[in-house]
Amino acid sequence: MAVFKPENVEDFYEIGDVLGSGHFGQVRKVRELATGTYWAGKFLKIRKNSCSRLGLERSSVEREVEVLQTVQHPNIVALKDVFESRAELVLILEIVTGGELFDFIADKENLLESEAIEFMKQILEGLGFLHSKNIAHFDLKPENIMLSDKLSPNPNIKLIDFGLAHRFHQGEEFRSTSGTPQYIAPEVINSEPLSTAADMWSIGVITYILLSGLSPFQGDTDQETLRNIIALKYEFEAQNFSETSSMAKDFIEKLLVKDPSERMAAEDCLLHPWIKPITRKQEANRNRSSINMKNFKKFNARRKWKMSYNMVWVCNRLVHLQLLCKASSDPDSLQRQCESDSEDTESKPASLLRRRLSSSS
């Protein structure tokens, strides 16, 4: 169960500058009075009643807090404290100053596969630890893969934003329509029972983008993107993967598998020859290969420009409010309106996109 402190956060922390803002709150730099250590304070407005349109549901924040209080790993952002007042929850988190991994890479002139693999290892180690606790992230994308400090010669990866994370219990069947279209797995679109394998699909997409600078399933519209995912419609075009090793392509192919049970798990990925070469020849081939930096820079620039249009959360406000006010369903099963640490966005829910996809096919 999530643990909240009833004390005033300002009795323990000095509140500093705003680091970011979203629909329902702000992230501010805070200084711990007892030690002088700096942290990130995530100040979230909570709904006063079930029919309110302002603020987050307390239960949704509780789920995120429960996850973060369970996992402690070098590659997962740490949660130190949670304070509760009448209309606000404050999460005191490890401060992450290095920015997004993709921005860090885009600033480079070139990047060998072997260098990119060092980042992938950390992502997989953090994710593997999360999965070992029967927790899925369900929102893996470049915006949620950060660096603790980009000035370090060996930057440390931090997975952030666990607002959609879910802990699985034995015998449980869990479904969700949460996520950003180009990163979600087919079983999410089809509203099938989910598992930690959904995260591994996202890893496959992220790796494809990292190597080629292209998104494997991206269409002109969200509906087209979802169709491409369901049809498993992607390819390794020669002009975009000319510098990519065959092992890297094999790594991706073993993740972009429609059947979740056939995908590599995080621990399998760490043993794949692309990550851990078995022979000198494999290591040499990997070390001669590089990512398509020209394409990658273009992708990252477009991504930053379009961030305000990306789907961050399942946000079906009107339906949510109508159902909630009529008390016709369990609030925990309803879709929720949420915020992102890095984005102030809102878009159509995946369920609506799925219905449109079905009606037009």
TrEMBL record:
Swiss-Prot/TrEMBL keywords: ATP-binding, Kinase, Nucleotide-binding, Serine/threonine-protein kinase, Transferase
Membrane spanning stretches: none
UniProt cross-references to InterPro entries, sorted A to Z: Kinase-like_dom_sf, Prot_kinase_dom, Protein_kinase_ATP_BS, Ser/Thr_kinase_AS
EC number in record: 2.7.11.1
Region listing for Disordered, in residue ranges: 331-361
Any one GO cellular component localisation term in the record: nucleus
One Gene Ontology term of the molecular function aspect: ATP binding
Listed GO biological process terms: intracellular signal transduction; positive regulation of apoptotic process
Location of the Protein kinase domain: 13-275
Residues given in the record as ATP binding sites: 42
Enzyme class: transferase
SUPFAM superfamilies, per the entry: Protein kinase-like (PK-like)
Family the UniProt entry places it in: Belongs to the protein kinase superfamily.
UniProt-listed PANTHER family: PROTEIN KINASE DOMAIN-CONTAINING PROTEIN (PTHR24342:SF19), SERINE/THREONINE-PROTEIN KINASE 17 (PTHR24342)
Protein name (Swiss-Prot/TrEMBL): non-specific serine/threonine protein kinase
